[in-house]
Design goal:
- The chain has 487 residues and is α/β, with parallel strands linked by helices.
- It folds into two domains: 10-146, NAD(P)-binding Rossmann-like Domain (Rossmann fold); 179-477, Dihydrodipicolinate Reductase, domain 2 (2-Layer Sandwich).
- Helices cover 32% and strands 21% of the residues.
- The chain has helices spanning 20-35, 55-63, 77-84, 100-105, 124-133, 153-164, 182-192, 223-226, 231-248, 257-270, 276-282, 416-426, 435-454, 470-477, and strands spanning 10-15, 44-49, 87-91, 112-117, 141-145, 172-174, 206-214, 283-289, 291-293, 296-298, 316-321, 333-338, 345-352, 370-376, 380-388, 396-404, 460-463.
- It has a nine-stranded mixed beta sheet, with helices on both faces.
- The N and C termini lie far apart (51 Å).
Amino acid sequence: MTSSIPPSELDIVIFGGAGDLSFRKLLPALYMAHLHERLPASARIIAVGRQPWSREQYLDFIGARSPQFIEAPSFDAVSWDGFVQRLHYVSLDVTDAPAYEALRALGLSAVQRVFYLATAPGLFTGICAHLDTAGLVDAHSRVVLEKPLGTDLASAQAINTEVARHFREEQIYRIDHYLGKETVQNLMVLRFGNAMFEPLWRAPFIKSVQITVAETVGVGSRAGFYDGAGALRDMVQNHLLQLLCIVAMEQPISLDADDVRDEKLKVLRSLRKMDLADIRRDTVRGQYAEGVADGQSALSYQQEEGVAPGSRTETFVALRAHINNARWANVPFFLRTGKRMAKRHSQIIIEFAEQPFSIFGAGPKHQPNRLIITLQPEESIHLGLMVKEPGSGMNLHPVKLELDLQSSSNKRRAEAYERLLIDVIKGRLTHFMRRDELEAAWRWVEPILDGWQALDDKPRPYAAGSWGPAASSALMARENLSWFEET
C-alpha cells in the first residue's frame, strides 16, 4: 500500500482494479487519454483490489497484461512509464466498512472523485454505503456502475434505490460501452442531420429492422457469471435494446442528456409486451454445441469449465419485437445475439420497403434497398442500391455506396471506454442510462424470462461456428425475410 499520494484535482478510483475489465479495457482507455493529454496533469488512478499487493507488485501485474490491449502504434515504453506514475494500488476488502478509512487516509483530496465499480453488481450497494460513511462522497463525486445492473426488475430497482441513498441521479453513470462507439453516436447524426433519411425513417417506407451482435468467442473465464445470466440478460436487456432505442427514437428537442434519454424511454415504454403465445412464436433460445469457430475446434457450452451440468442457460437469442406507435406501426424489429457464431460483427440493417409497382419486374438479382450500419469489427455505413447492369437491356444489378468511417476523417477515433470515461470526467450524461430507462428495459425483458420458465423452454443446440439454431431463420422466413449474413 502506498503510504502517501500527492494532492490531485481528479481521483479515479477503480474497484476491481485487478480484474479483467480493468486491465483489458479501463487502463488501456485511460492510457490513451493520458497519451493524448485528455487527463488533468495531476490526475491519479487508484486501483482497489483484494490481493495483498504492494504498488510495485500491482504495476508488475498490470504491465504484463494491459499493453497487449493497446494498439501498437499508440503504445511506447516512455509513454507507458509516464502513465504508470499516475497509478496507485490499495488492498481492500470492499465488504469491510472500517477498511475504507484506510482509503480516505491516503489523501483523496481531489476536487473531483470518480468511483468506477468494476465489480460484481451484488457489491455495488455496499461499496456506495461504505464510501459515504467514510466521508468520501460529496457533491463533486461521481459513481460509474458496470452492467449487468441486477438480474431482474426487482434487483435492479433495489440496487438503484440503495445507490440513490448516497449519490444523486445526476452523479450516477450507468455505463453501456456500446453507447460509446463512434458509429452508434453517429447514428443520431445520420438520422437527424440529413434531410434525405428522416422522412423515410418510418412505416410504411421501412419494411423491417435487424440488429445483430454476434461473437465468435465462447464464455471463457466468464462461465461462472454467465451461467447465471444468459444472453437475454447479458446482451439483449442492455446493448441490443439501447441500439433499438437509438434507431427508433423521435428527434429530441436538444442534445441535453435528459432530452435524449426522454425519447429513448418513450421507445422502451412503447415496446409491445409479450404474452406466452408471443414468446413461443417470436423468441428463439439457443446453446452452442461442439463445432469449429475461428478455424479452431470449439467445446460445447456444456463442456466449458464452470458451467453447471445440464445447464439450460441460453448463449443465443433471436426475437421479434414491435413498437406500438405511429412511426413504427407493423414494422418488425428482429434482435439477435449469440456466442460461438460464424462471424464476429455487430450490425444494424434497415431494410426499406419495395416499390409498390416496378417496371423492372422481380429478377433474381433484385434486392431491397438496405442501409447497413456496421459497429464492429470495422465501423462503416453502406447503402444498397440497384443500378443498371452493363450491357444491352435493362437488367438490374446491386451495388453499394460505401462510407468507411475509419478513413473518412484524419481525426483520431477514441475507443468506446475512453470516450465514456472522458464523458464521466466532464459530467456528460447523454450516453449513460437513466434509472427509469434501465427499469423500463427490465419491465419488457422480465416477462420473456418468466415465459421461458413457464413454457419449460429448452435452448436449441447449434454448432459452434454457425449462425445459430435453424429456428431463428424460420422466425424471419415467416415474414418472407432472412437474416443479413454477409461474409
